[in-house]
Design brief:
alpha/beta, five-stranded mixed β-sheet, 7 helices, about 20% strand
């Protein structure tokens, strides 16, 4: 993989994240001595996002209702192949959906694609984790969606902000395989 990257392959960091309707409480104002209470809808509904940042500064994502499954990973790998030119070295964690036989079989059919798995329990090696933290802190902080549609709209604005500020490029500058 290092050889492929040295020969010009695009390094791609991939991961998924879940966003629930419960909200992300950050800071708020309150009268001294009175604890602020935030009433939230009792819902377990969530959206999941599969995302990737590339060594070229591209940020790609796909947001869906419910959990990410192996078929979604395959669809996202196809999405990457359509939107990123040349060879791709995709770095991802050891989640079962990433190690599924269907994923390995798919990769064998794609000459441009190879996968590198991170060591177990090492999210600090995947810079897209910083994108997820940024979104939770700066896009969803103190925001409480009542519906998944509302949450999706807010996330869409967040994805645009990430592309605008070129956060992935800054993250990639400090990262190497």
């Amino acid at each position: 993989s290092k050889k492929k990257v040295a020969q010009g392959a695009t390094l791609v960091y991939l991961d998924e994240v879940g966003f629930s309707l419960k909200g992300v409480l950050r800071r708020t104002w309150a009268q001294r001595g009175k604890t602020p209470v935030m009433r939230l809808p009792a819902s377990w509904q969530k959206l999941s996002t599969l995302g990737a940042i590339t060594s070229n500064g591209q940020f790609l994502q796909r947001t869906q209702t419910g959990a990410v499954k192996t078929g979604d990973v395959l669809a996202f790998l196809n999405h990457l192949l359509k939107h990123v030119t040349g060879e791709l070295v995709v770095v991802l964690d050891n989640a079962a959906i990433h190690r599924a036989k269907a994923v390995s079989a798919f990769v064998k059919t794609q000459a441009r694609l190879s996968l590198v798995y991170l060591p177990p329990y090492s999210p600090e090696f995947n810079p897209i984790e910083k994108v997820w933290a940024y979104v939770k802190r700066n896009v969803l902080g103190n925001f409480c969606a009542r519906t998944t549609k509302e949450l999706r709209t807010r996330l869409r604005a967040g994805w645009q902000r990430i592309r605008y500020i070129q956060l992935p490029q800054r993250l990639m500058a400090a990262t190497s395989i």
